[in-house]
Amino acid sequence: MDERARDQVIVVGAGPVGLVAALRLAEQGIPVTLIERETTLPHDLRASTFHPPTLEMLDTLGLSEPLIADGLEVPTWQVRRHETHERAEFDLSVIAGDTRYPFRLQCEQWKLCELAMARAEADDAIDIYMGHTFESLSQDDDGVRVQCRSADGEPLDLRGRYLIAADGSRSTIRGLLELPFEGLTYPETTILVTTHFPFEDHLPGLSRVNYVWIKGGTFSLLRLPDLWRCSVYAAAGETIEQALEPERIQTKLKRIIPSQDHFEILEIRPYRIHQRIIEHYRIGRVLMAGDAAHINSPSGGMGMNCGVHDAFNLTDKLARIYRGESTDLLDLYSRQRQPIAKEEILGQAHRNRTRMLEPDEDERTRTLRDLQATVADPVRARDYLLRSSMITGLRKAETLQ
Ligand SMILES: Cc1cc2nc3c(=O)[nH]c(=O)nc-3n(C[C@H](O)[C@H](O)[C@H](O)COP(=O)(O)OP(=O)(O)OC[C@H]3O[C@@H](n4cnc5c(N)ncnc54)[C@H](O)[C@@H]3O)c2cc1C
User: Fold this and answer.
1) Is residue 354 within 8 Å of 218, Cβ to Cβ?
2) Confidence class of residue 243 from pLDDT cuts 50, 70 and 90?
3) CATH of the domain spanning 3-72+107-182+275-357
4) How far is the CA of 217 from the centre of ligand 1 (A)?
5) Which end of the chain is least crowded, N or C, by CB within 10 Å?
């Protein structure tokens, strides 16, 4: 076996998690082979929010500055009532003492992937196989063996010391290892609509990230550098097929801005939301990370961020192992990351979703008053923002042994 095959880490999946893991390992002098099924990186609209600790981590790879230059800094976000414009507005300057980046960065996930891929391509320690699908694996005391296939049907056999499964929510690796992905699929379909329509000119005091109650429903408005992304839902009695009809999308937007006759729509994309997690992130020499290990409601914008935090924790442990420390550190990776994803990320995302889907007007009023009281109290506001910005979870993880 050649030296590289003995030492390398094989990473499956060139999403944000696999790419960041590959860059971090290469930075520590660990050889990596990165396998990606797609021939080019997709530009579909997925994550759009980067939280402060993620920017701090990405900064160590020199990726935050270009991301910030290509994104939009959002110092405040709000929960609001559409009819009255009443709102609770959280201001991240409250946590300026806790982070160098006291804002949410609104920026498309694919921009991170493009930047990270350009860096990976320029790094001799990283071999990249685009258009190659992972198919099977085996492991023994010496390492892992991975079989892949190119788009033309050519087999590719690889050997390595460890395998990082960053192959996303439908992870083939998770399936092959028969790891139960416990949880649920929420009943509703979210409809993502993008438009250049200037909502900020029509809705007083709008922030760039807004979660909104409207009579009988909810919607969110998230700003990206050059467009708004608006999440809406099927109306009562409407099938999802009906809800997606262009005229009905117009009706949904007209409920938000009744004075507007027509909205120019760039993209309509329905998606289902799940809340699922595996129990252990380490299976021998296979390490699960990102969506392959946990998925949650996008409410609060935490899924990708959580996966990047997995990648940092895991690659710290691997680097220490390559320097001679015990492989038990890989169990510590699982013990530190799994409970945080479960309690802090899945739990929080679930509560955010439940809050916005609450139909009862009195309950909405109580929740809004409570959020406004939190904003008005500096201690409570800081606590709340540390948690929603994913700092509390990372601090807790450090205390887990
Ligand atoms: C609409 C929407 C909005 C979201 N908003 C946010 C947000 O604001 N903030 C946030 O933090 N998160 C958000 N998320 C979640 C975020 O997109 C995911 O958590 C993130 O993409 C996970 O990254 P990953 O690298 O683990 O997986 P992925 O990005 O899914 O990457 C997995 C990669 O593995 C490849 N792959 C899969 N199988 C194989 C195989 N067999 N062989 C080779 N390659 C394979 C895939 O092609 C893919 O490139 C959102 C998601 C959606 C759908």
Assistant:
1) no
2) very high
3) 3.50.50.60
4) 28
5) C
**194 has which bridge partners?**
229, 267
The predicted pLDDT at position 5 comes to: 84
> With a 6 A CB cut-off, is 172 part of the ligand 1 pocket?
yes
**Is 292 in contact with 13 (CB distance < 8 Å)?**
yes
As given in the structure block, the two tokens for residue 315 are 């690659």
Cβ of 16 less than 6 Å from ligand 1: yes
Report which ligand 1 atom has the smallest distance to the Cα of 13: 34
Residue 15 alpha carbon to ligand 1 centre in Å = 6
Residue 45: phi, psi to the nearest 5?
-80, 105
Where does 271-360 have alpha helices with state H?
303-322, 329-339, 347-357
Q: Which atom of ligand 1 is nearest to the CA of 173?
A: 41
Ligand 1 centre and the CA of 18: distance in Å? 10
Mutate to test the pocket of ligand 1, among 19, 33, 45, 46 (most ligand atoms within 8 A of CB): 46
Residue nearest to atom 5 of ligand 1 (CA): 47
Domain boundaries, the chain: 3-72+107-182+275-357
**% of the chain exceeding 70 in pLDDT:** 100
Q: Which of 43, 109, 268 to mutate to test the pocket of ligand 1 (most atoms within 8 A of CB)?
A: 109
| Nearest Cα residue to atom 3 of ligand 1 | 46
pTM metric for this prediction:
0.97
398 class by beta-carbon count within 10 Å (0-12 exposed, 13-18 middle, 19+ buried): exposed
Question: Secondary structure of 105-154 in the HEC alphabet?
Answer: EECCHHHHHHHHHHHHHCCCCEEEECCEEEEEEEECCCCEEEEEEECCCC
Distance, in Å, from the CA atom of 134 to the CA atom of 147, rounded to the nearest integer, reads 6
